Q: What sequence folds into this?
């Protein structure tokens, strides 16, 4: 069964002591590829180091995460731009988006940064990976002008309502990134997916080290745990685990063009 983790931060310090074992467990679980979104310039070195060490297995993205946006965003954006000019170095622009959960101080700056990176994704023909937290309307408004373009990507860690899912479905070149949240007892995501989103619009992810699925909720997440999320998805769509793996992995491969 083909399994692909489309969103994992295995380059963070949480994995510094046992990264090799984490990778071994991922491979043993059937994970064939791991896609890694960047956060900001402080994580770029470790991201590239891990992807170089596990070349052909781990694939890097570059982008400025919304929670790293502040008054110094221009310098950070310049680094992203410079990295994007290297042909074939990155498979996507991410993770990018808006996050108004913690702080709305830099709302305007987040909008500017997100839109600029969307433009670069189109310029370099790369997909985007969108982080959205308490900012659905803002992101929807910013993306709407791009509906008829070739823009493509993933709505990372989607946990929205039926109405939000329906509105995101309008972006036909985008997939919904599903992770451990779907296994949480109080999550409404299973009903939203069942009612609105077909399986062929999903990709699987972990967001490691965050959002570990049941039965490991609360622990450090890792790519090998993705199988628990997939089992829940198979239950939601009343299908076999193998079908979930095949469809979502093909979606990921088609999106990233590899």
A:
């Amino acid at each position: 069964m083909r399994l692909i983790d489309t969103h994992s931060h295995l380059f963070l310090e949480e994995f510094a002591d046992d990264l090799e074992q984490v990778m071994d467990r991922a491979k043993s679980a059937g994970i064939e590829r791991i896609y890694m979104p960047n956060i900001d310039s402080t994580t770029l070195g470790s991201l590239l180091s891990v992807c170089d060490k596990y070349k052909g297995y781990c694939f890097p993205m570059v982008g400025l995460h919304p929670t790293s946006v502040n008054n110094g965003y221009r310098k950070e954006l310049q680094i992203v731009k410079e990295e994007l000019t290297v042909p074939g170095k990155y498979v996507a622009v991410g993770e990018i988006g808006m996050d108004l959960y913690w702080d709305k101080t830099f709302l305007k700056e987040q909008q500017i940064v997100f839109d600029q990176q969307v433009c670069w994704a189109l310029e370099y023909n790369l997909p985007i990976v969108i982080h959205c937290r308490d900012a659905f309307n803002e992101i929807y408004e910013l993306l709407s002008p791009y509906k008829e373009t070739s823009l493509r990507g993933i709505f990372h860690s989607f946990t929205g309502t039926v109405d939000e899912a329906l509105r995101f479905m309008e972006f036909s070149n985008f997939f919904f990134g599903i992770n451990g949240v779907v296994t949480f007892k109080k999550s409404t995501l299973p009903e939203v997916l069942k009612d609105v989103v077909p399986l062929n619009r999903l990709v699987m992810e972990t967001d490691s080290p965050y959002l570990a699925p049941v039965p490991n909720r609360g622990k450090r997440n890792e790519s090998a745990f993705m199988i628990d999320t997939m089992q829940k998805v198979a239950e939601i769509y009343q299908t076999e685990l193998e079908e979930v793996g095949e469809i979502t992995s093909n979606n990921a491969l088609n999106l990233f063009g590899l």
